[in-house]
Write a structure and sequence with these properties.
The chain is of the alpha+beta class and 320 residues long. The protein has 3 domains: 118 residues, no CATH class; 65 residues, no CATH class; 92 residues, Roll (PH-domain like). The chain is 21% helix and 29% strand. The strands form 4 sheets. The protein has a 7-stranded antiparallel β-sheet, with helices on one face. A hairpin with a 2-residue loop joins β16 and β17.
Length: 320
C-alpha cells in the first residue's frame, strides 16, 4: 500500500533523492507500506500545497495500491507557523483507494488529477472555532509582505500581528478570520494573504534587489552531513537576502556568497529552519522563534522560475 496523506500533518516527508527512491522500491518489493506527503511539506495557508507531477512515475514504478488520506482540522488546531495548539476538532479519513488495475487504465494527466483532487483540503476558511489566547503568535514566520507597504517585517503578540513599517495591526479570530484594528484589512483569511504574497513575489522585477538586500537576518549556521549529523559553523551569522543570492558574514563563519544559480533546492524544515542545497553541501540556517525562512525559499524559486531552472510552470510553484 502506498499511502498519500494530505494537508496539515504529513506522515512522512519524501525527499526524492536516489537513496529514498531505492528504499521505497525495496519496501514495495517486500510487501511493505509506504506513507508520504507528495506536497512535500505542511501547509502555511491552510490549503494542500502544490504537488509535483513527478509523483505519477513514482506511483507507476512502485505498482502499489494508492490510498488517499485526508487530515482535516489540523490547520485550525495548529497552523504550521504557530507554536500554539488551539482547542478545536480535527479528524482524518480515507478519501479513496486507487488500485494498480485502475490507474494502469488512466493517462498520466488523469492519475495526476485524481491524486491532486483526492488529497486537496482547504482550511483557509471558517469551518469551526479554535480557541486560544495566542492565535496570531509567530504568524511572522509566514508573513513578510504587507498589502499596504510591500516587503516588511511583522511582530505578533497574542491574537494580533503588526507591520513594523506602517504600524497597522491585524487580529486573528477564533474562526480564523482576519480583521484590521481601526481599518479595513483586504483579506478575510490568511490563505488570501498568502496568495497575495506569492503574487507580489512573482511580480518583482528580475533585477530588483541585486544591489541592496530585501531582508537582513541573524541566525546560526550549520553544515548538515546527510544521514549522519550536523555541526554548527557559525553563531549569530548576518544573513542578507538578495533576489539572486544569499550573503553570509560574521558569527565565526567568515564571509561567503551563495548564488542561487549554484543552489539545487531550498526547503523549510518544521516551522522555520531553512535548508540550502548548495553544490555538494547542505547548509541549515536556524534563526530565532520569529525567523521567517519561507521568504528565502520563495525568492529562490522565483529566481529559478525566471531563469528557467525548473520544469514547473512559471508562477505556479514557489517551493512549497
Amino acid at each position: 500500500m502506498l499511502r498519500f496523506a494530505a494537508a496539515p500533518v504529513p506522515i512522512k516527508k519524501f525527499t526524492g533523492d536516489a537513496r529514498a527512491v531505492l528504499t521505497c522500491v525495496k519496501i514495495a518489493s517486500e510487501g511493505g507500506t509506504i506513507a508520504m506527503a507528495p506536497e512535500g511539506n505542511r501547509t502555511y495557508s491552510g490549503r494542500t500545497c502544490y504537488i509535483m507531477r513527478s509523483v505519477v512515475p513514482f506511483v507507476r514504478k512502485l505498482k502499489l495500491p494508492v490510498l488517499l488520506y485526508r487530515i482535516e482540522g489540523g490547520y485550525g488546531v495548529e497552523p504550521r507557523w504557530s507554536s500554539c495548539v488551539r482547542k478545536g476538532s480535527m479528524h482524518s479519513y480515507v478519501f479513496r483507494v486507487i488500485e494498480p488495475e485502475e490507474y494502469e487504465q488512466l493517462s498520466d494527466d488523469e492519475l495526476y488529477t485524481a491524486i491532486k483532487e483526492g488529497l486537496f483540503v482547504d482550511e483557509g476558511k471558517a469551518e469551526g472555532l479554535y480557541i486560544s489566547g495566542k492565535k496570531a503568535e509567530y504568524i511572522e514566520r509566514a508573513a513578510y509582505v504587507c498589502p499596504f507597504c510591500g516587503l516588511s517585517v511583522f511582530e505578533s503578540e497574542k491574537n494580533c500581528v503588526t507591520c513594523t513599517k506602517c504600524g497597522r495591526t491585524v487580529e486573528y479570530g477564533e474562526d480564523k478570520r482576519l480583521s484590521g484594528k481601526g481599518f479595513d484589512f483586504p483579506f478575510e483569511f490568511y490563505g488570501e494573504w498568502y496568495d497575495y504574497q506569492n503574487s507580489f513575489v512573482k511580480g518583482l522585477a528580475a533585477d530588483a534587489y541585486t544591489a541592496e538586500p530585501m531582508f537582513r537576518d541573524k541566525a546560526d549556521l550549520y553544515r548538515v552531513n546527510l544521514y549522519k549529523n550536523k555541526e554548527r559553523t557559525g553563531r549569530d551569522v548576518k544573513i542578507s537576502l538578495f533576489s539572486d543570492r544569499i550573503e553570509l558574514s560574521g558569527g565565526g563563519a567568515g564571509a561567503s556568497v551563495i548564488p542561487f544559480s549554484e543552489v539545487s533546492a531550498t526547503t523549510v524544515l518544521g516551522r522555520n529552519k531553512l535548508n540550502i542545497y548548495h553544490g555538494k553541501n547542505t547548509l541549515q540556517i536556524r534563526g530565532g522563534k520569529r525567523f521567517n525562512a519561507l521568504k528565502y525559499v520563495n525568492m529562490y524559486y522565483k529566481y529559478r522560475s525566471v531563469n528557467k531552472k525548473t520544469g514547473e510552470e512559471y508562477g505556479e510553484f514557489l517551493g512549497l
